[in-house]
């Protein structure tokens, strides 16, 4: 038997309603803030991610699904959405549209990860990006919207951590101080940290190795190195979050795993599951890096797989799968034809109606209706068709009512 690839999932019909519920709610929330959907290709040129995400990141160095296509072009399945969205922004001349541009997406991403709890190789993200503003107000809106997205799913112990990683100007001074600190003990760090020392020392702070974590304990903190502009920006973000009663924790260790970030970065972390459900931040240099004008931008992405997994754990009773409003069981060709026409008419009133597609006996049909959890059932035979009346049964209470075989009478009970 051919099996699915490691780190991928089948979302089965019995579970897809949970994903739909989350996607619908997120879509509605983001639309309320004025965001519009963007859809971009699953595959892009590898160079986009090398330049956009950064060639010293884990994502680019270790996790990309990269291959040569038949025209010998290096292609990569998108490991994240921001680089592609920015490419689309530049390529489609969106800079000339009224600014800022506010976009959302719900898309699968591909990362060759070590598969474990909450870590997949095909992962779905729901994300949002604002391109075209440097104002701290965009940071506040993004964080407030992310907060609203997560809070509506009734999940316990999710904490918002924020940090500022400054701009290239203040970061330079910080990186020098950091290198001085790490350099004293460099031989004791893991090989990945050693590799990052010259090119991207801040990523060393994100290392999950126990010994590196220990060595990093008294490392200098970026917040003490922010330039005046970055400091004021971060203060304004914090003040506004307080005014909005959004609780946060400052975590100076957040550096984020992708290279494009500047200034505000944030993560919503589940304490019960011990992983990040949503991460994001400002990326003021990315549009220019990818060939556009210097443009302020900020965004986030939520791990939909992670959210669904936790949601499922804590909201079992709260949402319902889609179920048939009415199941019509039939006996004989004539009744089957009448049922098909009646079902089509009823569906045009936006209710879910199912008919027997296996030509089963009435008894077996009603058993099936019970198994699929239909709300009502209707039994049609030659007699019912001739008299234009039939018994409508409430499958939960067992109560039966005689109805005329027209849409109005049936809808008055079923809808
Ligand atoms: P990221 O932190 O790499 O950021 O991913 C965002 C979220 O996607 C994570 O917090 C996590 O919930 C989920 N995620 C990441 N990798 C996996 C995985 N292997 N399995 C399951 N879930 C995963 C980004 O991707 C940025 N593009 C976010 C962003 C948008 N920043 C600015 N705009």
List the helices and strands and how they pair.
Elements: H1 16-32, E1 36-37, E2 43-45, H2 46-52, H3 58-62, E3 66-68, E4 74-77, H4 82-91, E5 101-110, E6 122-131, H5 136-151, E7 158-164, H6 168-183, H7 191-199, H8 210-215, H9 228-243, E8 249-250, E9 262-270, E10 275-282, H10 286-289, E11 297-303, H11 304-314, E12 326-330, H12 333-347, E13 353-355, H13 362-371, E14 376-380, H14 382-387, E15 389-394, E16 400-404, H15 407-414
Parallel strand pairs: 1-5, 7-8, 12-13, 12-14
Antiparallel strand pairs: 2-4, 3-4, 5-6, 6-11, 7-9, 9-10, 10-11, 14-15, 15-16
Helix pairs in contact: 5-9
The structure holds histidyl-adenosine monophosphate (HAM).
Average pLDDT for all residues: 95
Protein structure class: alpha+beta
Q: What portion of the residues fall into strands of 2 or more residues?
A: 15-25%
CATH architecture of the largest domain: 2-Layer Sandwich
CATH topology of the largest domain: BirA Bifunctional Protein, domain 2
* CATH class bucket of the largest domain: Alpha Beta
What is the CA-CA span between the terminal residues?
44 Å
How many helices? The count is 15
Helix content: 25-40%
Number of strands: 16
How would you describe the shape?
elongated
User: What is the radius of gyration computed over CA atoms, rounded to a whole number of angstroms?
Assistant: 28 Å
Largest sheet: 8 strands, mixed
Bound compounds, each kind once, are: histidyl-adenosine monophosphate
Regions with pLDDT < 50 over 5+ consecutive residues? none
Number of domains: 2
Major β-sheet strand ordering: 1-5-6-11-10-9-7-8
In CATH, the homologous superfamily of the largest domain goes by the name: Bira Bifunctional Protein, Domain 2
